[in-house]
């Protein structure tokens, strides 16, 4: 086992700081893409749309067009970062320069692009909504239903990340293995796992689509966000039935792992009851 040097400590600190930044960005992204839109619809504090404005007038409004142009530029920035750094020639070039921090740098730049998108996103309030639930009792119950389904989707997404070896996904495991002289952690995974990761590192397609589109009110800027990210997600992945079967097997293994302590408790209780009857 290799001895841990000062350089190794520095790499570990960098990876942990990156993990903290990615975690904060993830919380901001959930608030931006999901709960904020539902909260505004429930409270009514912020006007998302102006239904009294005709579409012909709204689409000629300079403020609406300016906001859409800014939002589209932010989405292009994120898609460019996420695709360019995953492109094989760029990926190999960065690997030769950054070494074990290559995955860390990819996650950091992704989180940075998301922070820019969140901070500079321009809501379009001068155009009508494509749909809006405003009549009782659905004006109360439908936002609560959306909130519940969004919460469930984010819980599923987080569980999938845990199944997918979250430390390796964030680049922490690469640094840890480098410090111990174990090489690339991806080489220890099964061929089926490597095949799945080569198709998509985070297969959360259906859950993310539900979060993007299931809202009480769909404004014009949200249509742009949901349509662009859904299209990008559909074009970016190449998952197939073999990947789905592997995911189901991993999920069943995790569920059995969580059920084993409970089963052991039941077996122990039954043995105690039998012993008492024998006595």
Automatic annotation (TrEMBL):
Cellular compartments per GO CC: nuclear inner membrane
Membrane topology label: Multi-pass membrane protein
Ubl conjugation keyword on record: no
Keywords: Membrane, Transmembrane, Transmembrane helix
Keyword Membrane: yes
Localization (cell): Nucleus inner membrane
InterPro entries the record matches: Nurim-like
Domain of life of the source: Eukaryota
Major location (coarse): nucleus
Annotated TM spans: 9-30, 100-121, 141-164
Family: Belongs to the nurim family.
PANTHER family, alphabetized: NURIM (PTHR31040:SF1)
Identification of the protein by name: Nurim
């Amino acid at each position: 086992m290799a001895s841990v040097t000062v350089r190794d400590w520095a790499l570990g600190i960098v990876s942990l700081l990156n993990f903290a930044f990615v975690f904060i960005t993830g919380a901001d992204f959930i608030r931006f893409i999901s709960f904020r839109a539902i909260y505004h619809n429930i409270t009514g504090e912020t006007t998302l749309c102006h239904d009294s404005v005709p579409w012909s007038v709204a689409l000629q409004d300079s403020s609406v067009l300016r906001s859409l142009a800014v939002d589209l530029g932010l989405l292009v920035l994120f898609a460019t970062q996420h695709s360019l750094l995953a492109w094989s020639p760029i990926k190999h070039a960065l690997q030769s320069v950054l070494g074990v921090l290559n995955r860390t740098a990819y996650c950091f730049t992704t989180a940075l692009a998301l922070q820019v998108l969140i901070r500079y996103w321009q809501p379009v309030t001068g155009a009508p909504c494509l749909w809006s639930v405003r009549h009782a009792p659905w004006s109360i119950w439908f936002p609560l239903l959306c909130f519940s389904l969004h919460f469930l989707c984010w819980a599923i997404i987080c569980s999938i990340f845990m199944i997918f070896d979250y430390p390796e996904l964030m680049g922490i495991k690469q640094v840890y293995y480098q410090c111990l002289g174990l090489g690339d952690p991806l080489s220890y995974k099964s061929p089926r796992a490597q095949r799945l990761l080569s198709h998509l590192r985070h297969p959360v397609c259906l859950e993310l689509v539900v979060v993007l589109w299931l809202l009480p009110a769909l404004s014009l800027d949200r249509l742009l966000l949901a349509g662009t990210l859904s299209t990008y997600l559909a074009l970016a992945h190449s998952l197939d039935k073999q990947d789905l079967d592997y995911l189901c097997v991993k999920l069943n293994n995790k569920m059995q792992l969580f059920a084993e302590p409970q089963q052991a408790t039941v077996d122990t209780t039954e043995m105690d009851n039998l012993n008492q009857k024998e006595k």
